[in-house]
Design a protein that fits this description.
This protein is an alpha+beta fold. The chain has a single domain, classed as Alpha-Beta Plaits. The protein contains 6 helices and 7 strands, in the order αβαββαββββααα. The strands form 3 sheets. It has a 3-stranded antiparallel sheet with strand order 2-3-5. A hairpin with a 6-residue loop joins β6 and β7. It starts with 7 loop residues before the first helix and ends with a helix. 16% of the residues are buried.
Protein backbone atom coordinates (compact mmCIF):
# COMPACT_ATOMS: atom_id res chain seq x y z
CA UNK A 1 0.00 0.00 0.00
CA UNK A 2 3.03 2.26 0.29
CA UNK A 3 3.28 2.67 -3.51
CA UNK A 4 -0.11 4.45 -3.69
CA UNK A 5 1.42 7.53 -1.98
CA UNK A 6 3.97 7.87 -4.81
CA UNK A 7 1.28 8.35 -7.44
CA UNK A 8 1.13 12.15 -6.95
CA UNK A 9 2.48 12.53 -10.48
CA UNK A 10 -0.87 11.27 -11.80
CA UNK A 11 -2.59 14.36 -10.38
CA UNK A 12 0.08 16.59 -11.97
CA UNK A 13 -0.34 14.77 -15.29
CA UNK A 14 -4.10 15.26 -15.20
CA UNK A 15 -3.66 19.00 -14.41
CA UNK A 16 -1.22 19.45 -17.33
CA UNK A 17 -3.81 18.09 -19.75
CA UNK A 18 -5.80 21.29 -19.30
CA UNK A 19 -2.94 23.87 -19.28
CA UNK A 20 -1.42 25.66 -22.27
CA UNK A 21 2.04 24.49 -23.39
CA UNK A 22 5.03 26.25 -21.85
CA UNK A 23 7.37 25.83 -24.81
CA UNK A 24 7.97 28.21 -27.71
CA UNK A 25 6.27 27.46 -31.02
CA UNK A 26 9.51 28.11 -32.95
CA UNK A 27 10.11 27.24 -35.84
CA UNK A 28 6.37 27.10 -36.54
CA UNK A 29 5.76 30.40 -34.77
CA UNK A 30 7.80 33.57 -34.27
CA UNK A 31 11.38 33.22 -33.07
CA UNK A 32 11.91 33.87 -29.36
CA UNK A 33 13.75 37.05 -28.37
CA UNK A 34 17.46 36.47 -27.79
CA UNK A 35 19.03 37.90 -24.64
CA UNK A 36 21.30 40.93 -25.18
CA UNK A 37 24.29 39.14 -23.64
CA UNK A 38 24.05 36.18 -26.04
CA UNK A 39 27.23 35.51 -28.03
CA UNK A 40 26.09 34.80 -31.58
CA UNK A 41 27.37 35.42 -35.11
CA UNK A 42 30.70 37.23 -35.44
CA UNK A 43 30.52 40.60 -37.21
CA UNK A 44 33.60 42.30 -38.66
CA UNK A 45 33.93 46.01 -39.46
CA UNK A 46 36.39 46.31 -42.35
CA UNK A 47 37.20 49.97 -41.72
CA UNK A 48 38.47 49.18 -38.21
CA UNK A 49 40.48 46.06 -39.08
CA UNK A 50 44.25 46.57 -39.34
CA UNK A 51 45.14 42.98 -40.28
CA UNK A 52 47.18 42.31 -37.11
CA UNK A 53 46.02 38.63 -36.98
CA UNK A 54 45.42 38.71 -33.21
CA UNK A 55 41.92 37.29 -33.75
CA UNK A 56 43.26 34.35 -35.76
CA UNK A 57 45.91 33.63 -33.11
CA UNK A 58 43.42 33.43 -30.22
CA UNK A 59 40.61 31.63 -32.10
CA UNK A 60 40.01 28.32 -30.34
CA UNK A 61 38.04 26.73 -33.18
CA UNK A 62 40.47 27.87 -35.93
CA UNK A 63 37.53 29.67 -37.55
CA UNK A 64 39.41 32.85 -38.50
CA UNK A 65 41.86 32.93 -41.39
CA UNK A 66 43.80 35.83 -42.90
CA UNK A 67 45.04 35.94 -46.48
CA UNK A 68 47.29 38.64 -47.88
CA UNK A 69 46.07 39.95 -51.20
CA UNK A 70 47.18 42.69 -53.57
CA UNK A 71 44.81 45.33 -52.19
CA UNK A 72 44.81 44.34 -48.50
CA UNK A 73 44.33 41.57 -45.95
CA UNK A 74 41.30 39.33 -46.40
CA UNK A 75 39.73 38.22 -43.11
CA UNK A 76 37.50 35.14 -43.31
CA UNK A 77 35.38 33.93 -40.38
CA UNK A 78 33.89 30.45 -40.83
CA UNK A 79 30.73 30.37 -38.70
CA UNK A 80 30.50 26.58 -38.98
CA UNK A 81 33.76 26.26 -37.00
CA UNK A 82 33.18 29.14 -34.58
CA UNK A 83 32.66 28.15 -30.94
CA UNK A 84 31.25 31.61 -30.07
CA UNK A 85 33.71 31.98 -27.21
CA UNK A 86 34.24 35.70 -27.90
CA UNK A 87 38.04 35.67 -27.57
CA UNK A 88 38.47 37.27 -30.99
CA UNK A 89 36.31 40.26 -30.04
CA UNK A 90 37.90 40.51 -26.59
CA UNK A 91 41.50 40.62 -27.84
CA UNK A 92 40.97 42.69 -31.03
CA UNK A 93 43.00 45.88 -30.39
CA UNK A 94 40.83 48.03 -32.66
CA UNK A 95 37.39 46.63 -31.81
CA UNK A 96 36.79 45.46 -35.38
CA UNK A 97 35.13 42.19 -34.29
CA UNK A 98 32.01 41.84 -32.21
CA UNK A 99 29.61 39.04 -31.45
CA UNK A 100 26.01 39.86 -32.29
CA UNK A 101 23.07 38.22 -30.57
CA UNK A 102 21.96 36.54 -33.80
CA UNK A 103 21.50 32.95 -32.70
CA UNK A 104 19.61 31.29 -35.56
CA UNK A 105 22.47 30.00 -37.69
CA UNK A 106 20.84 26.79 -38.85
CA UNK A 107 21.34 26.04 -42.52
CA UNK A 108 21.25 23.24 -45.03
CA UNK A 109 24.43 21.19 -45.36
CA UNK A 110 24.83 22.43 -48.93
CA UNK A 111 25.08 26.02 -47.62
CA UNK A 112 27.88 25.39 -45.12
CA UNK A 113 30.45 27.09 -47.34
CA UNK A 114 28.38 30.25 -47.55
CA UNK A 115 28.21 30.69 -43.77
CA UNK A 116 31.26 32.97 -43.73
CA UNK A 117 32.04 36.56 -42.90
CA UNK A 118 34.44 37.72 -45.62
CA UNK A 119 36.00 41.18 -45.20
CA UNK A 120 38.86 42.96 -46.93
CA UNK A 121 40.98 45.30 -44.78
CA UNK A 122 42.53 47.55 -47.43
CA UNK A 123 46.13 48.66 -47.42
CA UNK A 124 47.04 52.31 -47.39
CA UNK A 125 50.02 53.61 -49.32
CA UNK A 126 52.96 55.58 -47.91
CA UNK A 127 52.72 59.17 -49.19
CA UNK A 128 56.51 59.40 -49.63
CA UNK A 129 57.68 56.08 -51.12
CA UNK A 130 54.47 54.24 -52.10
CA UNK A 131 54.97 51.21 -49.81
CA UNK A 132 51.80 49.35 -48.80
CA UNK A 133 51.03 49.47 -45.08
CA UNK A 134 48.26 48.94 -42.57
CA UNK A 135 47.32 52.02 -40.56
CA UNK A 136 44.69 52.08 -37.78
CA UNK A 137 41.52 53.89 -38.75
CA UNK A 138 40.34 56.47 -36.24
CA UNK A 139 39.97 54.28 -33.16
CA UNK A 140 41.18 55.78 -29.89
CA UNK A 141 41.90 52.36 -28.40
CA UNK A 142 44.03 51.51 -31.43
CA UNK A 143 46.14 54.58 -30.73
CA UNK A 144 46.94 53.33 -27.24
CA UNK A 145 47.69 49.81 -28.49
CA UNK A 146 49.71 50.70 -31.58
CA UNK A 147 51.11 54.14 -30.76
CA UNK A 148 49.87 57.68 -31.21
CA UNK A 149 52.46 58.66 -33.80
CA UNK A 150 51.30 55.77 -36.00
CA UNK A 151 47.65 56.60 -35.33
CA UNK A 152 47.97 60.30 -36.14
CA UNK A 153 48.98 59.63 -39.74
CA UNK A 154 45.51 58.65 -40.95
CA UNK A 155 45.44 61.42 -43.57
CA UNK A 156 49.07 61.09 -44.63
CA UNK A 157 50.27 57.56 -43.84
CA UNK A 158 54.00 56.87 -43.90
CA UNK A 159 56.00 53.66 -43.59
CA UNK A 160 58.48 53.29 -40.70
CA UNK A 161 61.51 54.40 -42.75
CA UNK A 162 59.80 57.52 -44.15
CA UNK A 163 58.37 58.37 -40.73
CA UNK A 164 61.86 58.22 -39.21
CA UNK A 165 63.17 60.52 -41.96
CA UNK A 166 60.32 62.94 -41.34
CA UNK A 167 60.96 62.91 -37.58
CA UNK A 168 64.68 63.53 -38.19
CA UNK A 169 63.83 66.50 -40.46
CA UNK A 170 61.54 67.93 -37.77
CA UNK A 171 64.22 67.55 -35.11
CA UNK A 172 66.82 69.24 -37.31
CA UNK A 173 64.41 72.13 -38.05
CA UNK A 174 63.71 72.72 -34.36
CA UNK A 175 67.43 72.78 -33.52
CA UNK A 176 68.22 75.41 -36.13
Amino acid sequence: MKWIGNLGFVAELAANLFRAPRTEAYPLGPAPEAPKSLRGRVRVEADKCVGCSTCAQVCVGDAIHLQEQEEGVRLIVWHGRCTFCGLCAYYCPTGALELSNEWNLSHANADKYTMVEDVLAKYQVCVDCGTRLMVPHGNVFAASAIGTDRHNQMNSPRCDACRRKQQARLVMETRL
